[in-house]
Each structure stands twice: as C-alpha cells, then as structure tokens.
Amino acid sequence: MITNQARSVLKNGMVLMRWIAVVSSSVAAIISTMLPLYGVIDGGQWSALFLLLLFSAFLIHGVLTHLLNDYTDHLSGTDARSPAILSGGSRLIQTGAVPAETIGRVGKGLAAGLALLAAALLVTGFVRLGVLLAVGVWAAVSYSLRPLRTSYYPVAGEWISTFPSLFFLGLAGPWLALETVPEWAFQNALVNALICIAWVMVHHIPDLRADARAVPKKQTSVVWAAERFGLVFSRLPAVIYYVLAGACAFWLGLERLPAALGLAVSTAAAIFLIMKMDVEDPEEVSSVEKWLLLLAMSTAVWLGIFV
Description:
307 residues, mainly alpha, 13 helices, transferase, prenyltransferase activity
C-alpha cells in the first residue's frame, strides 16, 4: 500500500517533470531517430535501447534540469512573477509543496551522482554512454547553476546548453546501435533540436517582464529582442530558429523529398502561428505553444518515417 508520503513524492515528481514538454522535445527527438532503426537492429536490442533513452530523457531533462531551473529561478524571483500558464516553473516552491532548499539540494546531489556515473562509464570503457550522459549533465548544470547559468544570457542558453543536449540525444540511438552514424540521423537530430529551441523561445514570451525584473536579470534572447527592438519583436528569436529548421529542408533535398516537404510545411505553419499571435496575451501565447508542441512531435515522427 502506498503511504501518503510516497504518494506526495510521486505527485510532486510528476508535476516537476512537466512531461508534456519532455515528450514534445526529448522523446520526440528519440523517436525521430529510433524509428528508422526498427527492423534494422534486433528487436530486443531496439526495445532495450529505446527504454534506456526514454528513462535517461525523463531523468535528465524532466527531473534534473527542472530541479535546477526551478531552484535558480526561485532565487532570482522570476518564477514568482510569472503568469504561470505553461511557464513559471513547476510551481512546487511557490505553492509550498516542496521547500526551495530541498529542490536545490536534491538537484545538486543528483547532478553530482550522474557526473560520477558518467566518469565511471568513461573509465570502464563505455565511452559513448559516458559522453552522452556527460553532455546531459553539462547541459542541465550549465543552464541553471553558477558560474555559467547560461539561461540568464541571450543566445548562450540555447547554444551552450540546450542545443548540445537535444542534438546528442537525437544522435544517441544510431550512435549506440550502429558502427557509423548515417546522414539522416544528423539531419533529424539537428532539425528536432532547432525546433525545440524555437518553441522554447515562444515559451519565454509570457515570462519576459518577470525575467527582466529578476535579480540577477534573466536576459533571455526573448528579453533581449523585446528591449532592443520593441515588444512585438519578442517573437523574433522563435521565428529565426524556425527559419533555420526550415532551411534544413534544402539539406534533406531530393534524397528525402517527402521529409523535406513535410518539414517545410511544418515550419511555415509554426511561423504563421507565431506571427499572428498577440505577444501581450499570455493565454494566447500558451495556446499557440500547444500547437507548436503538436507540430514538433508530428515533425519528429514524419522525419523518422521518411528517411
């Protein structure tokens, strides 16, 4: 029988994980490069690898990243001022469900434990697993903790932390299963990472005033664009990343024409939604973000089918 304490831990864990975001980014990236491997490698190996990557994604992107991010954003004060529709962290600290000190302590402890595991894997010869785990831990720690805390600087959060983590997660399946990573794996991993960063930029729009008032200031790319060019340009970072993702259709070219066409349509639809949304209405922005999450998942699966 589950005790009240265990039930509370499970409930808080589910809230912390924000599984919808993890599924539409990390799980989508995994599926996109695991689908083409189905039937290419042994079925048991495929299932074991898929479950390993799934567990790793939820542990690192769902638990570790959100623990550290919730803790840092609580200290700076941005989560307390967020409109908190799809943003503003898990709200576990703000609602008093879990003390901030506990969130921080558990997050740092988990990061240290996973870093030690990554080192052990590297030393014992499991180099690829060790590298993948190290990249995931690096991304979570560098994104939220000092001295880097890249999420508080424009562009840095995307390219120093978020992109490497999502790109390597997309490559993980083929890299672990095959001797040589095929070109389609690099293509799918790149596209899915760029699309994820793009909708994260939309995710930051409702928080831009709270982020600008944080101490220290959380100057995301969205905050930078809004302060530099005006509030209406807060959508600019998202549009740029979707354009970059859409431009990859030329790389896919005639060799993967259905995939290229699907990618072009998906990114064009995303840009259309972003351009017509009211950036001053948090509810409308969150509604658009839900559509972007669906597009991200659909695009990942489409790319996984047409290789």
